[in-house]
Amino acid sequence: MPTPDFTSARNRVLARRSAREASLQNSLASQHHAHASNPLVTRLPVPLGTLALKTLSTWDLISTPFGTRPSFRVSQVDAELLDEELLTLLQAQVGDGLKYYGAHLRDEWAAEILLGLRAVLWKLSIWDHDTSYGASLQNLRYVDARHAGAVPRPPSRWQKAGYGILSVGGRYAWARWENWLAEQEGDEGEVSGNVRALSKLSGWISTTHSLAALGSFLVFLVNGRYRTLLDRALRLRLAPLTSQVSRQVSFEYLNRQLVWHAFTEFLLFLLPLVGISRWRRWLSRAWRRAKSLVKPAGDDDEEAEPKGELAFLPERTCAICYQDQNPTSTTENEALAISGASGGVIGSAQTDITNPYETIPCKCIYCFVCIATRLEAEEGEGWTCLRCGVLVKECQPWDGDVVQEIPRPKSTKKVSFSDEEDGRRERSASRSGPEVVGTAAGEKGGASMAEESKQWAQQDAGDRGEKQP
């Protein structure tokens, strides 16, 4: 039950509103009387004088904001922007859902998608609740502007139906019309004269509508009654839902955004000083150690030889380039599936090794830029090889395509013959260094001197035998 104080306050508000309306009516009546008694108007003929009087009265009604009780213009414009943002958000979500059935559906049926979304939003908002979602957030609703009473009257059914037909069906029909004209003009053949005429007519209608919408918006900025040209044609205006709610500017979201912005800027400044890469390497090393400790004893034989995560790649493929281009496909089964789809070749021309460098000590080959970048990023703490899993700290140029000369000892060959009486031939070949060759030559020289002295002894013995008989 209302209290006496509340009743008296309500009576005062109603009395103030009645006084404002009476003042408005008196002001309009005085202005109409002044225009009617104007000598310039009275001198005109009857049809022109009546038209001039109505024009001046309409101008006074448009130019004065008193009596129109407009809501805040910025709230009405924000309501329209919120409705467009909601429509864009729903359109993006529908497009993301349709991409699994075909990427072409979102582009081919864009006009139909907008038609369905606008129809659903119109039915659930304006037709059911006399307000759009953006207007309800701004504490606004549509009212019938034809009724000039103190209490606003909700819009009629034909007004809401006309709003839906023009805003939903009209936009769809115009979009399909423009698409049809674009298809006709885009054909390779000659464009007919009818199509050119229709295209010019369409452009003229679009320009006229834009100019009319601009003029309507300028009038809206003056009196704040009709936000759009469609609202002006249907006599629909936005009014507050209740007068008990005062408009307060809240900076809660702005303060929250400023706090998060300052926090993210502080993190971006702090992360390089902390060295996040060093912590990441420490955690990965600790994880590998823990994994090796909890590994079953039976797996020692299977994993006796270290093996990296990309050991299945061919030698011509740089494992770092392959990992950068395929961040999600790092297992052998996925790589084999991809290679089967691409003709049995793992990798591509972009993953082939360029300027090969080999790691120390595992001798795995990578691109110079790739391996140098990884080693430099680790800051001397070592990088785990993707092929064999060995910790790598250095690299060197690959010498696989260079034939290195292996140093071999020098060799000599010597052939000598035996005595002429026996007629036998002896070959002695020695393969040694310079010192061994010198020794063999000295031995041969001594043997030849011994043979010569033996021959002289035999000849002396023969001479003596001939002299003794």
UniProtKB/TrEMBL annotation:
Keywords for the protein's UniProt record, in alphabetical order: Membrane, Metal-binding, Peroxisome, Protein transport, Transferase, Transmembrane, Transmembrane helix, Transport, Ubl conjugation pathway, Zinc, Zinc-finger
Quote any Pfam family the record assigns: Pex2_Pex12
The entry's localization annotation reads: Peroxisome membrane
One GO term in the molecular function aspect is: transferase activity
Q: Does the keyword Transferase apply?
A: yes
Positions of the region Disordered? Answer: 403-469
Specify the pathway: Protein modification; protein ubiquitination
- Tell me where in this chain the Pex N-terminal domain is found: 83-282
Q: Which GO terms describe its cellular component?
A: peroxisomal membrane
User: Which topology term describes how it sits in the membrane?
Assistant: Multi-pass membrane protein
Q: Which GO terms describe its biological process?
A: protein import into peroxisome matrix, receptor recycling; protein ubiquitination
Q: What InterPro entries does this protein map onto?
A: PEX2/10, Pex_N
The similarity comment for this entry is: Belongs to the pex2/pex10/pex12 family.
State what protein this is by name.
Answer: Peroxisome assembly protein (Peroxin-2)
Task: Tell me what organism the protein belongs to.
Answer: Heterodermia speciosa
